[in-house]
Amino acid sequence: LISKFVAAKVKYVMENVNQVALFPGVVDFIRQLRRKNYKVWIATSAHRDFGKEVFKNLPDLKTAFGRNAVWWEMYKESKPSPKVLNVTLEKMGLKNSQVYYVGDAASDYKTSLNANVKFIYFCPNLKQRDARIPESVPIVFSHREIWRWL
Q1: 78 and 45 in contact (C-beta within 8 Å)?
Q2: End-to-end CA distance of the chain
Q3: 3-state DSSP call for residue 119?
Q4: What is the pLDDT of residue 109?
Q5: E strands along 11-117, which residues?
Q6: What is the pLDDT of residues 101-118, one digit of tens each?
Q7: Alpha carbon distance 58, 21 (integer Å)
Q8: Of the candidates 92, 93, 88, 24, which has an alpha carbon nearest to the alpha carbon of residue 58?
Q9: How far is the C-alpha of 145 from the C-alpha of 120, rounded, in Å?
């Protein structure tokens, strides 16, 4: 039953990949970070095939990130395992003390704790704030607000 459920979920996700949208200005923001010599990567639990489809539908995103992405196939452990961040840090050539992980879920926060990486909570709507993430954690409502933490 589980394998059927997973197959149905994967099929649904791939059929709806064209509905993935970006917040306005995200690609320009990534370019600004890069111009200031920040390393910007995607570390996701999505599979590479899904990512390729997203990049195909959003070519500006592909251009912004290029090969700077870590997919499920590269670490194969679910959050809150630190492996996704450890693999990303290795590929970036950085230490955990040099990195901010921006995430939108409690599992992202726990992953950052386990990898000893600073966390910024992306929460565009405070009414939907996850109470499992401590109030002491920096919050940004928009990608543009990240500048104040760098």
Answers
A1: yes
A2: 46
A3: strand
A4: 98
A5: 42-43, 69-70, 100-103
A6: 999 999 999 999 999 999
A7: 8
A8: 24
A9: 10
- Identify any residues that bridge with 121 across adjacent strands, giving them in sequence order: 103, 139
List the beta strands (DSSP E) in 29-141.
42-43, 69-70, 100-103, 118-122, 139-140
C-alpha torsion angle, residues 145, 79, 135, 101 (rounded to 10): -30
CA distance 44 to 131: 22
* pTM to 2 decimal places: 0.86
- CA-to-CA distance for 127 and 6, rounded, in angstroms? 31
Per-residue pLDDT for 24 more than 90?
A: no
Among residues 142, 147, 94, 135, the alpha carbon closest in space to that of 117 is found at 94
Burial code (b: 16+ CB inside 10 Å, e: under 16) for 86-124 equals bbbbebbeeeeeebebbbeeebbbbbbebbebebbbbbe
Contact 108/44 with Cβ under 8 angstroms? no
CB 83 within 8 A of CB 49: no
Collapsing DSSP to helix, strand or coil, 121 comes out as strand
Contact 106, 132 (CB under 8 A): yes
